[in-house]
Write a structure and sequence with these properties.
By secondary structure, the chain is of the alpha+beta class. The protein folds into three domains: 2-264, no CATH class; 272-357, Alpha-Beta Plaits; 359-414, no CATH class. Helix content is 33%, strand content 33%. It has helices at residues 14-24, 28-35, 86-89, 99-107, 113-134, 145-165, 194-199, 217-226, 288-300, 331-341, 388-398, 402-414; strands at 2-7, 43-52, 55-65, 71-73, 96-98, 142-144, 169-172, 175-176, 181-184, 187-190, 205-206, 229-230, 236-245, 256-264, 271-283, 305-312, 318-326, 348-357, 359-366, 369-378, 381-386. The strands form seven sheets. The protein has a five-stranded mixed beta sheet with strand order 12-7-1-14-13. It has a four-stranded antiparallel beta sheet with strand order 16-17-15-18, with helices on one face. The protein has a three-stranded antiparallel beta sheet with strand order 2-3-4, with helices on one face. α9 packs antiparallel against α10. 36% of the residues are buried.
Length: 415
């Protein structure tokens, strides 16, 4: 299995990632050829050798045409990625693209399905963070014209490079976010920028190695969307090392991103295996309603799954064991949530491996209406599960039972 491991001791940005991928051996002409399938004009990629802290590698600049037709080099920082409030920043003097428009552009392109999926996942990470920050719906999040082009090239480029390298699994070290302040559309803000701070809930991070923004929202989104393990123990042969050089000279820190392509002994059988943590608490003095509220809060804190088990405690008292499954990046938030919203004064945690089938969501047109269907593959067969909320919606609309809706859809699918 080919693993792409990121060493983010100096952080990560979209251009540093592209630079590291080119340094790993991705052919720039092949990358540009694939990116042209987006039918997006007004950009070019420039790559050249450079060094930071005595370490040589590749530096990349995405040069975009502004609205006046002039080309501009853009230093990667938060204000190029940040969603803007329509009434404040998207008036007559600014073109903009909504997230929904960018998603449609990617879906309607000639890129491979794998690249489309990865690209949309990364962009969705940023859009969700910006929607949370600004109190908007994700489809209403918009990006400035130049910033949108810049981000599209960085993000889709990351997916294209991963496919060209044949990457099957992504891992990362702890991610340095930086320190000090950064200027964005809303003025001067502390590092990490708001979107980066929200995205960093998904991975282990550090602060303060430099007085500047080390990780941008795009860089954080790439790590959040693609990486399944952090600070892993990997056994295998290092095939190549790539160094992406950042745009700044940072005192006391070599501003580079190192990426390693590793051939491990793991076999790629179509399943995904991730290291996770199971956290649990025994509770005998909370009502069912209170435990339900706790479960909601655990999901909000980043838990991937939450469940309850009936147990007997000392003196044969009936109680509930509340369990949560979480990635390393949100472990602290999940544990804090237990302490804040439950009566427990102690927790247990253990490291577990979760193996899951690769899956995707498809849309099905039926005589009753559209439904989403989760499709997963196992060896030579497929498993299909229709989203319950869609079944519930159709049952209410048609005034029939969920069982009737499900049976009718299954009959139509089997024809």
């Amino acid at each position: 299995m080919k693993i792409l491991h990121y060493n983010c001791a100096a952080g990560i940005s979209g251009d540093m990632n592209l630079a590291a991928m080119l340094d790993l051996g991705v052919d720039k002409n092949e990358l540009v050829k694939e990116l042209r399938k987006l039918n997006l004009d007004g950009w070019e990629i420039q790559a050249f050798r450079d060094s930071r802290g005595g370490i040589f590698g590749t530096r990349v600049e995405v040069v975009c045409e502004d609205l006046d037709g002039h080309s501009h080099h853009h230093e990667k920082s938060h204000h190029h990625h940040e969603a803007c409030r329509h009434e404040e920043h998207c008036g007559h003097h600014h073109h903009h693209r909504h997230y929904s428009d960018i998603k449609a552009m990617i879906e309607n392109s000639g890129l491979s399905e794998n690249v489309k999926k990865m690209s949309i996942n990364i962009f969705e990470k940023i859009a969700k963070a910006e929607a949370e920050i600004h109190g908007r719906e994700i489809g209403d999040v918009c990006f400035h014209e130049v910033g949108a082009v810049d981000s599209i090239i960085d993000i889709v480029g990351a997916a294209v490079c991963a496919e060209l390298l044949g990457v099957e699994k992504f891992t990362s070290s702890k991610v340095e976010l930086g320190g000090g302040t950064v200027r964005c559309a809303h003025g001067v803000m502390p590092v990490p920028a708001p979107a980066t701070a929200l995205l960093a809930r998904d991975f282990p991070a550090s602060l303060g190695a430099a007085e500047c923004e080390c990780t941008t929202p795009t860089g954080a989104a790439i790590i959040s969307a693609l990486c399944s393990e952090f600070e892993p123990k990997i056994e295998g042969r290092i095939l190549k090392c790539g160094v992406g050089v950042g745009h700044r000279n940072v005192g006391g820190l070599a501003n580079v991103l190192r990426a390693m392509l590793i051939e491990s002994g793991e076999t790629s059988d179509g399943n995904e295996t991730e290291k996770m943590y199971e956290i649990s608490a025994n509770i005998d003095d909370m009502t069912a309603e209170e435990i339900s509220f706790l479960a909601e809060k655990l999901f909000e804190s980043g838990a991937l799954d939450v469940w309850q088990e009936n147990i007997f405690m000392k003196k044969n008292r009936l109680a509930v064991k509340v369990c949560a499954l979480a990635k390393a990046g949100v472990l602290r938030q999940v544990k804090d949530c237990f302490f804040k919203y439950s009566s427990t004064i102690g927790l247990r945690q253990c490291e577990v491996l979760r193996e899951s089938l690769k899956r995707e969501t498809a849309k099905l047109e039926t005589s009753l209406g559209e439904v989403r269907c989760k499709v997963s593959a196992f060896k030579n067969s497929q498993k299909k599960k229709i989203e319950f909320e869609d079944l519930k919606k159709l049952a209410n609309e048609k005034s029939i039972s969920i069982a009737e809706v499900l049976q009718k859809i299954r009959d139509e699918i089997s024809r």
